[in-house]
Structure formats: C-alpha cells, structure tokens
Automatic annotation (TrEMBL), chain A:
InterPro entries: AAA+_ATPase, ABC_transporter-like_ATP-bd, ABC_transporter-like_CS, ABC_transpr_MalK-like, ABC_transpr_MalK/UgpC-like, Mo/tungstate-bd_C_term_dom, NA-bd_OB-fold, OB_MalK-like. Pfam families: ABC_tran, OB_MalK. This is Glycerol-3-phosphate ABC transporter, ATP-binding protein UgpC. One of its GO terms (molecular function) is ATP binding. Keywords: ATP-binding, Nucleotide-binding, Transport.
Length: 365, 463
C-alpha cells in the first residue's frame, strides 16, 4: 500500500493549445478512496492514465509511495486497473480464473492458492472456487473480475468508469460492493467517474476537475456544504444548487423585489462588484409564512414521500419568458404543498447561503 | 419500434425478432459458428444470403464501437465491417432491451478455437502468433489503442500458408493521433494477460497441444512484437560511408510487408553520421502492388506469392523489358483466371480464390518434384482440385467442429462444455443484493444524491 502524489503534473497533447491536465497537485493518502469527477474533457481520465503510465507527463512528477514513477513503464508501477479484463474462461475453474495472472508472474502454487482463497473469502465466492464460471450471475462475474485485481496485491487500484458498461441494476450493487471491498482491503484507490452521485457516495475524498484544472478536493460533505467556487457549487448535488444572480444593495442581495439578508462581511469581500451570485440548495428553502422571501412562480410540483419538489421561475416574469428563464428548485415538506401556478415566497437560513463573485466565480461566504 | 442506425441499410435485417432478447432468439435465425468467448450475448444470425454477428450491448458502447469500426475500415485496418446498430428495442411488455451491434461475418475467417482444436502443429501456432503481432503493430501504427487485445477478439484468414489477423471487437478501443509508449506497453500488458488466460483455457479444455506452453507462447508474442516495432519505427545510426543501409532498411520493411511513406534522414554537420527513422509506415506493400497491377484484392502473403508467379511468368515469356501492367494483364487472363475459373461451383466455398491459386502453385511444385519434370499449371490445378480441395472442409462459413467437445450452448462457447451440475452454491452477497433491491424500490428518489444518508454515515464514522 502506498500514497500517491501528483506534483504539478501536466499533460499537453501534441498540437493542443491548452493542457489536458494543467499543473495537477493532489496528494492521496495511504488507503484512501479518491474519486476524480468532472464533465467529459475535464482531464480526470487523463490524470488517471498519467498515473497508470499510459499518458506521458510533460511537466511535473508523479510518485507512488517514495518512488518517482513519472517515467516508469506501466508494468513496473505496481498498480492494477480493475475490471480491465473480465472475459471469464469457460474451461477454467473460478479459482483459476482469478489466479491465472499470478501463474504468469511465476508466483509459487501454494501462495497462489492462498491468495485466491483470501480473495474469494472477501468476495463471498469461496463455494464457487472449484466450479466452472458458466453458471455465474452478472454480479458474480464482476466479483471474479475484482478478484483478479485483488490477488495481485498491487499498491494502488485504478478504476476508470468501471460501472459504465453495466446495466442500471448491476451498477448500483457493484457500486456498493466496490466501496465496501475497498474499505476492507484498505488499498489506495483512484476512481474516475463523470457521475457526481457515484463520486459522492463512494469517495473518501472527491477531486472535482474542469478544463484540466483541479477545482476542489475535499470530503463529500465539505464539497457539498462549502463549494469553493461556482462550478463546484453547480456540479455537486442532485438536484443542483440554485444559483441566482442578484444586485448588491444595502443589507444584502436583491433578487426580484426581495432583499436577501446576506451578512455584511461577505459582501465586503466583493469589493466593487455590483452583481453577485447567491447559491441555495433546494432542501434549504422553506416557504416563508410571513410573505417575505424570494418569489417563485410554481410550474411543476413533484411529490416524493414526505417531501415535495417545486420547480418554477423567479416571480414576476411574463409568461413568454418563463420557458427560457432559469429554473429554481425547492424541496419542501409535502404536508401542504402549493399547487402549480401558485406564487410562493421562499426563504432560507443565512447559514445555508453560498455567495459567489459572479465575475471570478470564487466563494465569498 | 426498433431504430436502425446504418450506413447502408440491409432491409432483410429489419424482419428479425428485435422484440426478443438475443439470448432467446429461435434457432431458425441462428448459425452455430465457432468463435471466441465474449462477456456479452453474441449470436451469428443468418438472413437472406448473408451471415451476420449480432452483439447485445449498452447503447453508448454499441455506437462507440460502430463508429470506431467504421473508422478502422476507412483507415484500411483489417477489421470486421460494421453494418449498424439497432436501438430502441422493447419487448412485448414494453420493457426496454439493450441495443444490438451488427457486423458482417468475415468470409473464410477462422476463429482461434477452431484452429487450435485440430491437433494444431507448432508451426501453425507460430504463424498465428505472427499474424496477431502484425495486426497489433498495424493497429498501433494507426494510433489505435485496443484495450482488449485477445484471441477471442481476433479472426484469422488463410494467407498463402500463413494467416492474416482481423480485429473483431473494438468495444474498448480508442483512436489517437499517435500512441505513447505507455499506451503501447499497456496494450501489450493486456495482450500478455488475455492471451495467457486464453491459452490456459484451451489447455484446461484439453484443446491445446501438450507440447505448447502458454507462458512460452505469450513471451514469443511479446518478443516478436518488440522486434517488429523496432524494425518499423526504430532509429538507425551509421557512418556516412554506409549509405546503402538506407536502401536495406527499406528492403527489410518491404519484405515484412510494409512500405515507408516518410523516412526521416538527418546528418550531423560534417555529414559523417547518418540517422534514419521511418516516420510513416503503411502495411500492405505487396497487396497494394498486386491490386494496382491486376485489380486482385488479397491478403499480403497471397499477394507476395501471386507477384512471384507473375515475375516468373514474365521471365518465362521473355518480357523483362515490357510494360509491367501489360504483362500483369496477360498473366491474369492466361494463368490466374483459368485456374480459378476451373474450380467447380461446389468446391468454391472451401477456400478463397487467391488461396486456391497459392495451393495450386504449391501442389504443382510438389507434383513437378515427384515427376522430375515441370508440370503445367492447368494440369496441376485439375489434380489439386480432384485430390486435395475436395477433401477439405468448407471454410466460407466455418461450421462447428465436433472435436471441441459438446458445448453447453452450441451458439455460445462462453458457456463452456456441457458438463458439470448447474445447482448453485450459497452466495451471501446475492442474498444481500436482493434485500438491497427491495429497499431501493421503496425510495423513488434513488436518482437523487441522498445527502442525509451521507451525513449519517459521516457522523457514524466519527463517533
């Protein structure tokens, strides 16, 4: 097991004018489950491949433990790409399917058997070891594939969108299994996904990337509660945070006819900016009994168990502009939800305000 | 209603039972062909006069592979030809089914499992390995990262006694402008693992000759690949007095079946040291020349063989000074076509025409040696067809082979032999899955990020 660190690691593709990964600095602790997430083209897969040795590092370095692996060929890095090969060989037993790569690496038979047995115990596949794989379910096949990586006992597991070729049902169960296994094995893992829900539910920490730049790396809860900039605020959370632009006025930020009471010291950081972006997560809204709050013209009401989601636009827009206007979402208690077409007033506690500079995108609160 | 994404729509495919999972398709549509193992459901289907491979796979993968295979065809890489993707499939209950990628079955192709099952000779294995290595190097030259190099994802065609390899599965592939060394190493590492696994699987199924050792085989593949790659792309430095080495490099590459399209030559200031490196290398040196001269489209070694015969013809007819294309036309009409046209209809699905011609040449050599005098090509052809070709199995669409043991499912070798019991041992994880599944149904908000449960988990961890 080992730490992984990227130091100013940069990858520029020949002929490209922007780096695909731009001075990435990321320290991953021993045994940590690190998820790299971001929209397509953000550099997450490229970063993983730089660590795997598939992409050249044009600048900076990458270390696994104390070893500088920047220029090492993939096979000398002591890493395992999980789910890389999951063809199951029909004539070989499940045990041999898991352990054949060790045979290729000349690991003695007794040790091979022991490692396979350990992995099988961990994966709940003990009773299958001497069977042929033909009767295995989809989920069991996935576990044999995991077993192949586990028996190799690498320093680091790498997973590049491992769930993307599974159907929806298998995706959820495999997600849980990977996370549980990683916790038990304690092997440093770097996991790439474009799906923020997957990232947030699996990672010890999550690194959010955009356009080759690391936006923020933090625990899922910190990312959720204190996003460092507008991009992270909008990317993390489903449904997404409402990001509403307003005008700085005395005592707060004005949205429509209502002044949201934003603490003075946050506004002070905006030195000279007249427009700021206020972020409020849907679940932090509540309906203002007093009648003072951000006005919302409700277009759709979706009831889900104890909660209701309200979808609409800021109050006061003419009908023909609503369709293209920014959508605001609120999650409220469904005891007495408003009906569609109604106008409601929404408030939130100041502790749930996220204030961003519209110009730089940086967090001010 | 299923939707068809295709470049040249094949109307006959529209009538297939798309509303059924591929696994359940009635046998009347299927053909049991030997093939590699696959993690998806794959079936060979017969429609009209054609045989197609159908693979059930998630939509983004199906479309990715379809486009990639089209790119590979365009780049002239030996690969199967994609016909289309069928999406928006639903069963009679309205449940969605995964899309299907359709590719054309490669005529006269042989999957490795059928080649290995015939008590294969070391010599044949070497030729298969060579074909695989050439394919991998060609793919890497075009910037293709395969990601799942394996025998199962490769088909072989006879090529004048050797084999030519074709790529059949591009699901994990990526096309780049140029591959880094790390990417090639990665592919090679996967090749090692997968091929080793496949050889071990053949061994476990009793299909691999005992004299063959999986580890030696994969090491051979790796070494040959490295040799070929350095010949194709390596830098060579020599003294200014050895200029002939440029010419010999070109010849060596030609002999391997490659053309140099761009050669980078640099000299030091004094011109005493020359440094050469091929920059752009194209496969198909001989087959391109043959197609230019005769219009015949063949594999590389077949082309080499036919070109040799053409050269012999030229010498024999004393036309060394004549225009090459005129002589080629004479050879085509006076030598090649009479032999190929003499093949009776019922024997035409045994071998491809160019392969038959190659075998006739071989047979003539054998007969001439026996007789101690040169045998005429027409006579050699006749005797070859009567004594050899007749006995060979049909390979236009290779049929399942009995020697492979009885498959659990004749349409799906991935399920192994018909042998052990199917009753299932206890699996604690699947039990847990079922419970989890029930729970999930009760939370319709599963698609949303459940931040509350994350908070609970986090606080439980800190307690």
């Amino acid at each position: 097991m080992a730490t992984v660190s990227f130091s100013d690691a940069t990858r520029v593709y020949p002929g490209a004018d922007h780096p695909s990964v731009d001075r990435l600095n990321l320290d991953i602790a021993d045994g940590e489950f690190m998820v790299l997430v971001g929209p397509s083209g953000c550099g997450k897969s490229t970063s993983l491949r730089m660590l795997a040795g598939l992409e050249e590092v044009n600048q900076g370095s990458i270390h696994i433990g104390d070893r500088d692996v920047t220029d090492l060929p993939p096979k000398d890095r002591d890493i395992a790409m999980v789910f890389q090969n999951y063809a199951l060989y029909p004539h070989m037993t499940v045990g041999d399917n898991m352990g054949f790569a060790l045979k290729m690496a000349n690991v003695p038979k007794a040790e091979r058997q022991q490692r396979v047995m350990e992995a099988a115990k961990l994966l709940g596949l003990e009773d299958f070891l001497n069977r042929k794989p033909k009767a295995l379910s989809g989920g069991q096949r996935q576990r044999v594939a995991m077993g192949r990586a586990i028996v190799r006992q690498p320093q680091v597991f790498l997973m590049d969108e491992p769930l993307s070729n599974l159907d929806a049902k298998l995706r959820v169960s495999t997600r849980t299994q990977i996370a549980a296994l990683q916790t038990r094995l304690g092997v440093t893992t770097v996991y790439v996904t474009h799906d923020q829900v997957e990232a947030m539910t699996m990672g010890d920490r999550v690194a959010v990337m955009k356009d080759g730049v690391l936006m923020q790396v933090d625990s899922p809860l910190h990312l959720y509660d204190t996003p460092k900039n507008l991009f992270v605020a909008g990317f993390i959370g489903s449904p997404a945070m409402n990001l509403i632009e307003g005008t700085v006025v005395d005592g707060g930020i004005q949205v429509g006819d209502y002044t949201v009471p934003v603490p003075r010291e946050w506004l002070a950081k905006a030195a000279g900016e007249t427009k700021l972006t206020l972020g409020i997560r849907p679940e932090n809204f509540s309906i203002a009994e007093s009648g003072a709050g951000i006005g919302l013209d409700v277009a759709v009401v979706e009831e889900l168990g104890a909660d209701a989601f309200l979808y609409g636009t800021l109050a006061g827009l003419p009908e023909n502009e609503r369709l293209n206007a920014q959508q605001v979402v609120a999650r409220i208690s469904s005891r007495r939800p408003p009906s569609r077409g109604a106008t409601v007033r929404l408030t939130a506690d100041a502790e749930h305000f996220h204030v961003f500079s519209t110009k730089t995108g940086d967090r001010l609160s | 209603m299923p939707r068809f994404l295709a470049a040249q729509p094949q109307t006959e495919l529209i009538t297939l039972p798309w509303e059924m999972p591929l696994e359940d398709w009635p046998e009347k549509h299927l053909v049991a062909l030997p093939r590699g193992i696959s993690r998806h459901v794959v079936r060979f289907v017969k429609v009209g006069g054609g045989v197609y491979a159908a693979k059930e796979v998630l939509e983004h993968l199906a479309i990715h592979e379809y486009r990639l295979l089209r790119d590979l065809i365009r780049l002239d890489v030996p690969s199967v030809e994609p016909l289309g993707v069928v999406t928006a499939r639903v069963d009679p209950d309205g449940e969605p089914l995964d899309p299907v990628l359709i590719t054309k079955h490669l005529q006269f192709s042989l999957p490795y499992r059928s080649l290995f099952s015939r008590g294969v000779r070391q010599d044949t294995v070497n030729r298969l390995v060579d074909a695989m290595v050439v394919l991998l190097a060609r793919l890497h030259l075009t910037g293709f990262l395969w990601g799942d190099v394996s025998l199962s994802n490769t088909l072989f065609r006879r090529d004048a006694g050797s084999f030519a390899a074709y790529l059949v599965d591009a699901e994990t592939g990526e096309l780049h402008d140029q591959l880094t060394d790390g990417q090639r190493e990665h592919d090679l590492m996967i090749a090692r693992t997968n091929l080793f696994g496949e050889f071990c699987d053949l061994e476990a199924g009793g299909l691999l000759d005992e004299a063959l050792d999986p580890l030696t085989l994969v090491e051979t593949i790796e070494n040959r690949y490295r040799e070929l790659w350095s010949e194709l792309t390596g830098v060579e430095e020599f003294d200014g007095s050895e200029m002939h080495r440029i010419e010999s490099r070109v010849r060596r590459l030609n002999a391997l079946g490659f053309d140099i399209a761009e050669l980078d030559i640099t000299t030091d200031f004094a011109g005493s040291t020359i440094r050469i490196q091929p920059k752009v290398v194209d496969a198909g040196h001989h087959s391109r020349r043959l197609i230019r001269l005769t219009g015949l489209d063949t594999e590389e070694n077949q082309a080499r063989r036919l070109l040799n015969d053409l050269d012999t013809f030229r010498a024999r007819t004393d036309q060394q000074g004549a225009d090459e294309s005129i002589v080629a036309h004479q050879w085509l009409t006076q030598v090649f076509e009479p032999v190929v046209n003499a093949v009776p209809n019922e024997l035409r699905s045994k071998r491809e025409p160019a392969e038959i011609f190659h075998e006739v040449l071989e047979h003539r050599w054998f007969l001439s040696e026996q007789a101690g005098t040169e045998i005429d090509i027409k006579e050699a052809a006749e005797r070859y067809m009567n004594t050899v070709l007749k006995q060979l199995p049909d390979e236009a669409v290779a049929m399942s082979l009995d020697s492979m043991g009885q498959l659990a499912n004749p349409y799906d070798p991935s399920q192994g032999f018909l042998d052990d019991t199917v009753e299932k041992p206890y699996d604690p994880w699947e039990d847990a899955d079922e419970i989890a599944e029930e729970e999930e149904v009760s939370t319709p908000a599963a698609a949303y990020l459940d931040i509350d449960s994350l908070r609970r988990r986090a606080s439980a961890n800190t307690d």
